[in-house]
Amino acid sequence: MTAALTGRADARGTMRPRTLACTADGIWLWPGTPLTERRGAALVPLPTPHLYQHVATLHGPAVHAAALARVIERAAACLDRGRLEEADRVLAAVLLPPVSFDGAALMQAIGRRLGVSVPDVEIAGWPSASPPALFEQLARVHDRKLAVALTLEPIFNPDLQRIAPANVPFDPLVHPRWPAGQPDGGQFRPRDGDAIVPVQWQGPAVRVAARFLARLWRLLRRLPKLPEPREPEPPPPRSEPAPPEPPARAPESGEEKPPGVGHNRPPEDGAGPTPDEVENSPVPGNPGAGHDQPFTLPVERPTGEGEVAQWGQRAADKIREALKNNDTKRLTEIADALAHADWIKEQLDNIIAAQDPPRSLDELIEAAQEGGRRFGYDNHHIIEQGPQNGDVPPNVIDAPYNLARIPRYKHWQINKYYGQPQSECEGLTPREYLKGKSVEQRYQFGLAVLRKFGVLK
Amino acid sequence: MTSRNYSEMSDEELAKAFVEISVSEADAIGLGKVRTMRKLFDQLRALKETLRARGPEARRVLVPFLSYSPPSASIFADQAAQVRLNAARELLAVVPEQARAALEDLAANGPSAQSGRAGMCLQFLEDGVFKPT
Q: Residue A456: helix, strand or coil by DSSP?
């Protein structure tokens, strides 16, 4: 048994490979998951349930959430005072269980995918029945962290620092590198002003999210079933209920993805479904369906990106309905379903942001002007970008009053609405319907859409 | 299913096809398949025109769909809501009060995609832009 298990700090202290590290800008979990957020000048730890959720992904459910939160808080306080080395020492002494076998498998998959070194940390436990392909799928969630992961790599793997000048702490935010796969991959790149600002927990969704995640947290903290003493096959399966059928409809190849950030553009025209597609489209018999049936999610990740987002939006709708009805039983059931589907976790920010109540236009506009990222939110152009509004002056499209920060799922819904023919638009899409209308009419239409989709008061 | 064989179908068969297309439409919306949404809209329009061509009473076959709520294990909430939404839009001139009530209920309580669409439909009605026939 080693230091990690007994709680004794490793003799190498901050120079040992590890999964927690800090820079002047925050505290990070390998490969680059932020555990703090910046509020003004202060660094604030993420809420304890979220800290636990992140760290337990690698270290297993035995992570002591309260102790972890205390250490992160102490380290963040050190960073606030500019004491980077002291913060590093605090983190190095954190009592974490060894990385679980599943955590290690996930780390290997992430390392391969991002091209970063995996810290040589202690591993303990026993393998689960999860297929290797599952870890490859889960690793995709970390793709967006590539640049951060590359810059933090020498901190999580101190041996790599030997190539740096002696006694000079490596600061990835001062010396960022271009990510692998680019022509200059691995080379230092200029600093940019778009620092990562993980602020998932700001905004009106906080109260709802806190309630929701408090339930999710308790479910996630349930210890996995251990093997019976005399059972020859020890590893228990990670997910328990019989896998429901996949969603009603499998995605087609070349499937369109839900619209992303800042697009607000009309889709390209092209071939639609064949008659067979329509004939074979969703039919009764879908598990997880309906309002008085238990809410379930597929155990395995659905094969298409569009499907993952679709499940996420269904979950968001169910949560909103349960919150509206103050149905705690339903909420617990949904949290349980989410806790057992690892693949949906990449959607949690979107699901929580979708619970935002309508806000005033000033709030939406001000939020868009704040800059930085908000996980679960997008900036939405009230008069859309794109050729359909090519006759609108660019200074109007880009004006602050035309840009609102809204929950990502709502953004996607609105964009899909704009691209779908509507009976009330004489069979035209709203984009087509608005052509030739005045700028003021288009803006008012955009506001009406925001109101009706529950974004604007 | 194509518009070509709608004319050969009974009202009840058309009603069944109406549900199938609406359910597919809900999925196309959920999956962000914009081209599919357009195709399904065209199919639904052809179906509705077939019903309309059979006289004012034929459309009443859609009235039960204003409160469409099949056995819950068989369908997702957004799929059922899309059936209600499409039926309500088509029945505004036939059973205006019932259809409007369905739209208002969807706008207030429906899944986000259908809620927004129902709300916008009501907005077009209030503005006098949409005149159901």
A: strand
Q: Rounded to a whole number, what is the distance in Å from the CA of B41 to chain A's nearest CA? A: 7
Best mutation target, A423, A441, A457, to test chain B (most B CBs within 10 A): A423
pLDDT digits (tens, 9 = 90+) for B7-54: 999 999 999 999 999 999 999 999 999 899 999 999 999 999 999 999
Contacts of B40 in chain A (CB under 8 A): 272-273, 278
CB contact under 8 A, A354 and B1: no
ipTM here? 0.96
Give the SS3 label for residue A192: coil
Searching chain A, which residue's CA lies closest to the CA of residue B111? A317
Show Cβ contacts of residue A378 under 8 Å, excluding neighbours closer than 6 positions: A260, A261, A262, A405, A406, A407, A408, A411
Q: What is the CB neighbour count within 10 angstroms for residue A452? A: 21
Distance from CA of A204 to the nearest CA of B (A): 18
- H runs (alpha helix) in B32-76: 34-52
Partners of A292 on chain B (C-beta within 8 Å) are: 72
Residue of B nearest to A288 (CA): B73
Alpha-carbon distance of B65 to A76, in angstroms, equals 57
What is chain A's length? 457
* Nearest Cα residue to A418 out of A385, A374, A373, A375: A385
Report which residue type is found at B52.
Answer: R
pLDDT in tens, A168-217: 344 444 444 444 444 444 444 444 433 333 333 333 444 555 556 555 54
| DSSP notation for A93-147 | T---PPEEHHHHHHHHHHHHHHT-PPP---EES---S--HHHHHHHHGGGGGGHH
Nearest to A260 by CA among A408, A368, A383: A408
**Helix, strand, coil abundance in chain B, percent, nearest 5:** 75, 0, 25
In chain B, which residue's Cα lies nearest the Cα of A259? B32
Angle at A391 between CA A388 and CA A397, to 5 degrees: 80
Q: In whole angstroms, what is the distance from residue A334 CA to residue A352 CA?
A: 13
Mapped onto helix, strand or coil, the DSSP state of residue A48 is helix
Three-class SS state of A312: helix
User: Which residues of A are less than 8 Å from B75 in CB distance?
Assistant: 282, 284, 286, 289-290
Identify which of A248, A257, A453 has the shortest CB distance to residue B116. A453
Q: Provide the whole-model pTM.
A: 0.57
Residue A235 and residue A128: Cα distance in Å, rounded?
5
The whole-angstrom separation of Cα A195 and Cα A371 is 10
